[in-house]
């Protein structure tokens, strides 16, 4: 046998098969170790710090002493550990169980799922909504179900990876326009007139730079060229706009944006889950055709309970959402006065631009020593030469918390 000739001693058929399997695994390990080493060598290795407390403005981190100020969570409204949100999750867990052990259309739809979908559509002032396990799944599920080879999708070049991956799955004609460049978008829309449907897809707020899509201009071009508008509102829902409904409310175009995808895993309780909200016919189609919806288990009742209470708190009062504005401006103005360059436009994502990848990494580690939890971002997450530390402001940060964060940044350069 081949194995026997190779090893110069006889092997049974079973031993030979086992040897080939081990050889294949060894080859795989060789390939993986080379790939992992290339990531380490490029300085882009991502280590995971271990938190030993609830999510919040003050946390405990394994290996660090005392409380750490957390300035890098998507916990924009501080609802991840809000007592009413937690209580609602516990009540749903007790009443409806740990999970459904089913997809929605078999035996995985409870009244709390339908109630949350109704609440989401009411919050966004849309006709209907559909829940997913995450907004990544929502983005993976919409373009393939909606668009055909007769259609076209026009995507901002800096859209989130989930939008990019979702678009890759569909068979529509694909156009990519320069970041927030309306002249380039118009040229692409002109070229796309030959297609049946045209869908412009953009993040409402871009997570790496903290800038906000020019939705007024996008909607104006969409009307001119008979296109639909889709926005991903993961970094806007709950805190942008007078009532926290997002960038379309902030910019006064709620009636011109056709489809909204967003998350329950950031401002709205921070647990998990995503959704699409828009025309009822679209939502009905997604229930029939969207693969992540059809082949994924229903959201766990505890997650549904937490998100539902978060939306209740938002719809009862806009005070939490409005508190973000002053705190964001305080951090941005103090950092600018200290000589730092902050990207973005009045968004609680405040990228502190540093340029060099090693500086961002070393500075983030130093900040943790000073009691501030932030993370450095560098290529390939952001373009080369644009490394940064992304600071994120939460409604539950105090003014003293914000001032201490600014002090820690300035101390790094005068040590």
UniProtKB/TrEMBL annotation:
Residues 67-409 form the Aminotransferase class I/classII large domain. Belongs to the class-II pyridoxal-phosphate-dependent aminotransferase family. It comes from Chrysemys picta bellii (Western painted turtle). It comes from the Eukaryota. This is 2-amino-3-ketobutyrate coenzyme A ligase, mitochondrial. It is an enzyme of class 2 (transferase). InterPro entries: 2am3keto_CoA_ligase (IPR011282), Aminotrans_II_pyridoxalP_BS (IPR001917), Aminotransferase_I/II_large (IPR004839), AON_synthase_class-II (IPR050087), PyrdxlP-dep_Trfase (IPR015424), PyrdxlP-dep_Trfase_major (IPR015421), PyrdxlP-dep_Trfase_small (IPR015422). Keywords: Acyltransferase, Pyridoxal phosphate, Transferase, Transit peptide. Its EC number is 2.3.1.29.
